[in-house]
Amino acid sequence: MTTSDARVRMVGVDLQENDDSRAIVDALEEDNPDAVISRMPGLVRVRCPQRLVVNQASVERHLGRAWETHEFQLSIVSYFGHIDEWDDDEIVVAWDH
Amino acid sequence: MSTPRKLSMKKRYSALTRDLDWTPTYVDPKAVFPYTSFEGITIHDWSKWEDPFRLTVDSYFKYQAEKDKRLYAVLDGFAQSQGHLSLTDARYLNAMKLFIQGVTPLEYAAHRHFAFLSRFYDGPGPRFAAQCQSVDELRHTQTEVHTLSTYNKYYGGMHNWPEQFDRVWYLSVPKSYFEDAMSAGPFEFLIAISFSFEYLLTNLLFVPFMSGASFNGDLPTMTFGFSAQSDESRHMTLGLEAIKFLLEQDEANVPIVQEWIDKWFWRGYRLVALIAQMLDYMLPRKVMSWKESFELYFEEQMLGGLFPDLEFYGITKPRHVEQAIAEKDLLSHQVYWTLYQFSFAAGFTTTVPEADHLDWLSANYPETFDKYFRPLWDKAKKIQDDGGRFFFQGLPQLCQVCQVPMLFTEPGDPTTLAQRQVVHEGERYDFCSDGCQWIFEREPEKYVQAWLPVHQIFQGNCGGPSVPEVLAWYGLQDGDAGEYLGSVDHQNWERWHDHAASADVEAPVGSEPAEARA
Is the distance from CB of B301 to CB of B203 less than 8 angstroms? Predict the structure, then answer.
């Protein structure tokens, strides 16, 4: 059985291409230096090795308004990985094992 | 009594979800939750169920309402601006006909079954997650109907989908898939729908539809799709949490869950064959090929990302997955070629791909398209150029398990049809693949009961013995089925665009046209 242990496993989120998402993507890029952004029709995909963090404070700074992490539900279309944490101040997507 | 003005997310979730549960004392818990033991799954501690979204009822409705508001604003704007005329082409809507006939009824079935599960799981965590998903699925059903009703005013194929779902031959593929899950136990359903369908395969199913809509001028479907998909990320989480919970609760659960993964991967994979052809053949403007989509969403994200995570528990990649990978250069072509031959009895139309489309297929499938499939289309086109149309005369053999016609080929041999047979209690059953045969042999007493549309026609249960009688029983009307070129949709499309191009746009779109002008 082949596994991909040798290579880095990616996690990621697909977001709707909209106004809020632009600020969220800016925040993601800032907080996750290894993040790779790609675009498909209507979608922005953010991929990152191992772990991706959505930081509430960063998103608020980029949006210029208050933003609670539940609002991420209005932007997210899909993800891959495991939602490790979804709290007031951050959302973390990472593989468990 | 003083309470803090605002609880933290964790505390709110705990207070509004877990704390509302109680342990029954005057009724035996086994009588309250009668379905969670017969499958052989052992649960020691239901409180270990995690809900990473920490969703509570108040925030659930707040954000769902916001999603709906955004969607309905788009639907209004689209209808008011005659948006249907800005689609890339009327033939694009065949993808949406397939969607409302084959996917919308699944949303409704999911709504029903999650409502059932939200009553019958022992733990409050999964009960609440199931309840939210049940409401989500009803929302999806309603918003899909409202979204596509914009088109139903002007185009065929969308007017009778609930009845078609119960009757039309290819729709028994999604219907039997979901009923297989609904008639399983509550844990197998979670692996079937929440894990295999919503996590493993969801991106193959929905993202192509939505990006296809975006690329082909279908603003309502794109908006609906993203609105629904935002719920889907919660459903994916339910699937992933479900599997981890079952695997962590007891080691004896592992082999049971592995068999369910093996079964439901293959069931789901056969179901998405309908999506494969949609992606490669039904979109006038292409997003990505099926092969590319399969490699990205399935091979890279699931086999490369998820399964190494599950290895920790002793879970291995799904049985027969190597056959799915080996088929990726063939699947969409074999399925659409079959639909082309049988679309006289479908709720959508098909046609020979145009020259640039054939070239796109060659470029995306360099190993297989020119060798195996282009010659078929050349032949079909010649027949059409000569004024004919090749439709298959007769009814196809269906696979007893997936109910797809037996159109798939032997592994490694793209010109020999795969046929598997099993004799069970003196009756012969046929299968399209090793995967479907394996599924049958695990539970023959379930699959011998399959309602196979072709058998039902021969038994006289579908309106009568002739094709017109069967089509009438399907509720198909003129223009719903057959060849796209020259169809009612095609003629209307041409006429409406002549109107739009002329200076005189007095006549409301959809009204009877003036006499053809020069």
Answer: yes
